[in-house]
Amino acid sequence: xxxxxxxxxxxxxxxxxxxSSSGIGRAVAAELAGRGMTVVVTSRSEQRxxxxxxxxxxxxxxxxxxxxxxxxxxxxxLLVRRVLDAFGRVDVLVNNAGAGQxxxxxxxALEDWQRIIDVDLTAPFRCAQAVAGPMLAAGRGVIxxxxxxxxxxxxxxxxxxxxxxxxxxxxxxxLGVEWARRGVRVMSVAPAYVDTxxxxxxxxxxxxxxxxxxxxxxxxxxxxxxxxxxxxxFLASDEASFLTGSSVRVDGxxxxxxGWEGMSPPLTRGAR
Length: 272
Prior knowledge:
The chain is an alpha/beta fold.
C-alpha cells in the first residue's frame, strides 16, 4: 500500500528528541531510530549527547548529537538551524527535556519556580515555535510533548512542576487545533512513575520509595522507559494520523483509580 499524499515512511524522517541522553528521552531516541528515523540527540552535555548518539549508531541507527541549552534565548532556534543544515528537514519533535522539584509551596523561592517553568513549559513552547516554520511550510510534522500525570491532577509540594505540566497540556491542545489544518499534529504523552535515574532522586527528596509507587499503581509496578517510548513512536507515525490535541496517559491505571487501598502515607502527601 502506497503512503498517502503528504506522508513519509518513518525511514525518511528526521526526529529531534530533547533531553535524550538518559531516561525516557534516551528510550524514545532509540525507539525512533530502531524504526528507521534519523534521530537528533540533545543534551546540555556534549559528552552525554555524543555517547547516546554513538550507542544508537552502534545498534545500526542514524543519529546526530547536539549540545544545547534550551532555556537560552537562542537555544531552540540554533538547534533547529543545526538540524536543517545537516538534513534539510525536521519531521518530528519530541519535547522531553525537563526538570522536577519537590518543595513546600509556602517557602518555594521565586527563582526555583521560574527555573521549572522555564525548563518544563517555556522551552517546549519555544522548540515548537522553532520547528513550526519548516513543518508548516512542508505541510506536515508531528510534535509530541512529554507531560506527566501531574498535568492532569494536583500533587502536594509540586506547585511549579504541576503548573508547568498543566500548562504543557493546555499548550498541546492549543497548538494541536491551531496547526491541524496546516498538516502539523501535536499530542502529549502523560506518564506516571517511570523507572529512571530521575525518579530515584525524586523519591529521596519526596520521602517515598519505589515500593510505595508500585503499591499505589493498579498494575502494581512502575513503567519502563521503553513502554513510554513505544507510545511516542506510535503518535509520531502515520498510524496516528487522525490524532491531534490529545493526551495519552501511560500510567498503569493511576488516574482511573479513585480508591485508596494500597496507598501509603508518603504518596497521600503528594510525593512525586
